[in-house]
Write a structure and sequence with these properties.
This protein has 354 residues and is α+β, with helices and mostly antiparallel strands. The chain has two domains: 141 residues, Pdz3 Domain (Roll); 162 residues, no CATH class. Helix 2 packs across helix 7 and helix 7 crosses helix 9. The longest helix has 36 residues. The N and C termini lie far apart (80 Å). Bound molecules: zinc ion. Zinc ion binds next to helix 7 and helix 9.
């Protein structure tokens, strides 16, 4: 009996067919349309990455004091790429949009970074450093890294190609927090985390953050706060070197660990709430140092709550609720204002170690 019912059930559904006659369909046009849509997605990633990386690079320099000494490096503040560097699924499209070939090109740079102050522009191709040629193709980025001394402040002679004109620049490296950052291709989830070496932001989150002037800076500074306070103690051996090579155009090869999401709760640990509060606290000092108006920051957790309403009631999870974060942020901003008024140094207050 059961079999008969099941059989007739299947029969009814398998017999159902669409009744309309559709206009003729071309798979060739579909392939072309696929290329158009992928190009649009690549450009949407690029239009997010560029302003985000300018903001982030500037913060890494202005927050140098707030990172521990072993987490500071000297750098020029340029984000580089060539035809080998974009995510594979959008590589052709990115190469097209940025005109990337075998030479190493400045994709973006901090406006307050050494290279920015020296007059280097996005789109410039780096030909030589201190009279030595930068290799092309796959060896281009390692050959650049080799010529920059991360340990000492130094003056570099750069030979730049700009619109078929060769220009010489002198750039003196400055100190920044060593951590780099990535915008991944995830346009579905609202996520950001720090893994002790790198800060990773989902495309969707980065896009939303950029809708507000301080939004992107707040979350960038929060993730920097996790790394600067060494919240992730156990790093992958050589993770730094691996990251460095993978970071062309903000691409990170390697497994992220100890996720510390802003929105949801993955990677719960007994101390996460304290860590979140500490990263929030430090982020306001980072923002102040980077020249942001903290009064514009206050409504951030309210806007976040509207976007991720679960976070309004997240007590007991890995993150403080947005309500708690709002109230704590106001208190931190007041603390910073008091320090400025009393001419006290703008450093976070730490508990006395006995
Ligand atoms: Zn966090």
């Amino acid at each position: 009996m059961r079999v008969v019912i099941l059989f007739s059930f299947l029969l009814i559904f398998s017999c159902a067919q669409p009744q309309t006659k559709l206009p003729e369909y071309s798979t060739v046009l579909t392939d072309k349309e696929r290329d158009i849509q992928n190009q649009m997605f690549a450009d949407s990633w690029l239009n997010t990455y560029i302003p985000f990386s300018v903001m982030g690079t500037d913060i890494l320099f202005s927050a140098a004091d707030l990172c521990e000494e072993d987490d500071r490096i000297y750098s020029l503040g340029v984000n580089l790429g060539n035809e080998n560097s974009a995510y594979e699924s959008i590589r052709e499209e990115i190469n097209q949009s940025l005109g990337l070939g075998p030479k190493l090109k400045v994709v973006s740079l901090g406006s307050l970074s050494p290279a920015g102050k020296a007059g280097i522009l996005a789109g410039d191709e780096i030909l030589e450093i201190d009279g030595e040629k930068i290799k092309q193709g796959k060896d281009a980025f390692p050959s650049y890294i080799e010529k920059i001394d991360r340990k000492y402040r130094k003056l570099y002679d750069l030979k730049i190609l700009r619109n078929s004109e060769i220009i010489d620049f002198q750039v003196r490296s400055e100190q920044r927090c060593r951590f780099d950052f990535v915008i991944d291709l995830d346009n579905n989830t609202f996520n950001a985390f720090a893994n002790g070496d790198i800060m990773v932001f989902s495309l969707r989150m980065a896009k939303w953050l950029l809708m507000n002037e301080t939004g992107a800076a707040i979350v960038f500074a929060h993730e920097l706060g996790h790394n600067a306070n060494k919240h992730v103690a156990d790093k992958i051996e050589n993770a730094q070197a691996g990251a460095l090579l993978g970071l062309l155009l903000g691409i990170y090869v390697g497994l992220p660990q100890d996720m510390m999401e802003v929105g949801q709760s993955i990677g719960a640990s007994a101390y996460s709430i304290d860590y979140e509060n500490e990263a929030d606290y430090l982020s306001m000092y980072i923002l102040q140092k980077a020249g942001y108006n903290l009064d514009d920051a206050v409504d951030f957790w309210r806007r976040f709550a509207v976007e991720v309403p679960n976070s309004i009631y997240s007590e007991g999870g890995t993150h403080p609720s947005t309500a708690e974060r709002y109230v704590r942020m106001e208190a931190t901003i007041q603390e910073i204002k008091n320090k400025i008024e009393n001419n006290e140094p703008l450093i976070p207050s730490y508990e006395k170690a006995n």
